[in-house]
């Protein structure tokens, strides 16, 4: 079974630039999560999708972050414009249903904002 | 609000030593509890979980954790660690009213061969 795919694996940008991350969940998984993991901290949920609808985006900084999951499969997370404090690893996870025990994680994208 | 506290950010042990990583949570209701592990260069993966029943749960690779409700704790244990256990370990919790995980800051475990 193929796992959760993410790209790119690494990205370095300057502040005020834009960046986008892509996630392809495990086939058939209806629920998709984006997490932000800052160095020395645990993951923080940014947004949760159920198919192509948003379940929770209460912790997404909507003035600069956006995410979409067209057709209920792949998802993109965008930051525009980036700030220094956005430097983190962005993790994508998916699950069959909205249940934490079934979350499978991708390798993450390490973003460095200079 | 729910929160998870992991007491040690870094732990260094020799092979064959016993391991206990602390995890405490704050939440007044019924909880599900998890330990995740991230080996160097690999993805986060589930180590073990507690939903209900026997408070002593066993996971992969010889790990176990005990849920002590009165202490709001879910400590991870292994009687004899191996060099391959070097990894970062995360405790997470969710209340049964929602499916979102609240994560601890993680504990980096280094096993000296």
What does this structure look like?
The complex is a heterodimer of chains A (114) and B (113). Chain A is mainly beta and 114 residues long. Chain A is 0% helix and 48% strand. Chain B is mainly β. Chain B has one domain: Immunoglobulins (Immunoglobulin-like, Sandwich). The radius of gyration of chain B is 13 Å and the shape is globular. The chains are: A mainly beta (114), B mainly beta (113). The A-B interface holds A 3-4, 40-45, 48, 56, 91, 93, 98-101, 103-108 and B 4, 9, 32, 34, 42-46, 49, 51, 90, 92, 94, 99-101, 103-106.
Architecture blueprint of SSEs:
The complex is a heterodimer of chains A (114) and B (113).
Chain A: E1 5-7, E2 10-13, E3 19-24, E4 31-37, E5 44-50, E6 53-56, E7 65-68, E8 75-79, E9 88-95, E10 104-105, E11 109-113
Parallel strand pairs in A: 2-11
Antiparallel strand pairs in A: 1-3, 3-8, 4-5, 4-9, 5-6, 7-8, 9-10, 9-11
Chain B: E1 3-6, E2 10-14, E3 19-21, E4 23-26, E5 31-38, E6 44-50, E7 56-58, E8 64-68, E9 73-78, E10 87-95, E11 102-103, E12 107-112
Parallel strand pairs in B: 2-12
Antiparallel strand pairs in B: 1-4, 3-9, 5-6, 5-10, 7-8, 8-9, 10-11, 10-12
Brief summary of the model shown:
The complex is a heterodimer of chains A (about 110) and B (about 110). By secondary structure, chain A is an all-beta fold.
How many separate domains make up the residues of chain B? 1
Question: Shape of chain A, please?
Answer: globular
The number of E-state strands of chain B comes to 12
Would you tell me the structural class of the helices and strands of chain B?
mainly beta
The greatest interface here is: A-B, 22 and 21 residues
Shape of chain B: globular
Weakly predicted, low-confidence segments of chain A: none
Helix content of chain A: under 10%
How many individual helices of chain B?
A: 0
- CATH topology descriptor of chain A: Immunoglobulin-like
Instruction: Give me the count of strands of chain A.
Output: 11
SSE string of chain B: EEEEEEEEEEEE
Strand content of chain B: over 45%
CATH evolutionary superfamily of chain A: Immunoglobulins
